[in-house]
Amino acid sequence: MKVGYDSNSSQNIQGTGTYASNLINNMKIIDPELDLIGLDYQEFYDSMGLKDRIKKLIMRKKAKASGDPYWEWNKVPEIGKEKGIEIYHSMGGCVPRSAEFKTIQTILDLAYYYYPDYLTPPTINFFKKWYKESAQSADVLIAISESTKKDIIKYWDIPEEKIHVIHLGVSDKYFEKKPEDEIIQTKKKYLIPGNYFLFVGELNYRKNIHTLIKGFKIFQKENKGCKLVLAGRLQEGTYGNTINTLIKNNGLENDILFPGRVTMDELFCLYQGATAFVFPSLYEGFGLPVLEAMASETPVISSNTSSIPEVAGDAAILVDPLDEKAIAEAMLKIHDDPNLSNSLIQKGRARAERFTWKKTAEKTLELYKKTI
């Protein structure tokens, strides 16, 4: 089977890049004879270590950010026909409007319909116009959750039978126990003393950092010694200024720590060393950090919205993400109740074990065979 790819993710190593690299690597392990032809920016394949998985690479020059999909609509049909591609799978961009091969498009989320104010006009235009038109013309869509599938039907009026839900997986590395001395060294590096709650991800409005901080302030009235670690890049501009002001006004400058983007080994250590992982996101297409924390044997507090209940099941404390008191109460429960904490750890690990990249790859390969 010849499959062409355009991950469109050279500038997004976390989201689409995580999906693309894990899916490709696992499909090649399952089916070494799978003939993959990569059509994307060179730096994506270099950075994700995919050179050995995709031997045929057809590169394009960088396009303007969020520009019209000229490459996908005009060049991919020509290249695909020439190379004998049977399926073209776009993991983060668009598919051709018409082609002599089947097309599959993966949709990660439709957050831009819920929170458009925090994106640039060209980006919104790309997703609401070009991305939508592409999805409507694709032969098959992959949604990474039932929640995303419902959004696709709601906003794009696409038939349900065209959309196939294939969940993401969590890397085996999150299940591996890190040595205690590595956890201690990581905490020392980022000046984290004692117990701490952890958030991992982009620090922006949709991730609801402002409500998390307010909840942590309430929690702190009972537990002064605990810290809040926000691991990720703080959004620049108005929202970043709002967060810094909120921290200052509440006297939390020494209690909220910003390690920034950390290495993978450091991330494993931060997860495993945390009292709990708190993820009160307002909207997710899937919510992979929830499973990463569960695999790391860390109790999870998360939102009761969008895809999170689908992913977390009964293995997390789910709260209204807009209710800072509910967030604080959940933090207090885990902090003060070892039995509850241990129960969530056990349930969480079992839950995370149900989501593997091998399963994601197997179901994707099955869909390829049905689509041809």
Tell me about the largest β-sheet: 7 strands, parallel
The structural domain count equals 2
Percent of residues in helical segments? 40-55%
Shape: globular
Name of the CATH homologous superfamily of the largest domain: Glycogen Phosphorylase B
Q: Gyration radius, to the nearest Å?
A: 21 Å
Which characteristics define this entry?
alpha/beta; six-stranded parallel beta sheet; 2 domains; 15 helices; globular; 45% helix; 372 residues; Rossmann fold
Report on the structure:
The chain is α/β, with parallel strands linked by helices and 372 residues long. Helix 6 links the parallel strand 6 and strand 7 (163-165). It has 2 domains: 2-169 and 356-371, 3-Layer(aba) Sandwich (Rossmann fold), CATH 3.40.50.2000; 172-352, Rossmann fold (3-Layer(aba) Sandwich), CATH 3.40.50.2000. The protein is built from 15 helices and 13 strands. It has helices spanning 15-30, 42-47, 70-83, 111-114, 121-137, 146-156, 180-189, 209-220, 238-249, 264-273, 288-295, 308-312, 324-336, 338-352, 357-371, and strands at 2-6, 35-40, 56-59, 87-90, 102-107, 140-143, 163-165, 196-200, 227-231, 256-257, 276-279, 300-303, 317-319. Helix 7 packs across helix 10. The strands form 2 sheets. A 7-stranded parallel β-sheet has the order 3-2-1-4-5-6-7. The chain has a 6-stranded parallel β-sheet with strand order 10-9-8-11-12-13, with helices on both faces. The protein is 45% helix and 15% strand. It is globular. The longest helix is centred in the middle third of the chain and has 17 residues, at 121-137.
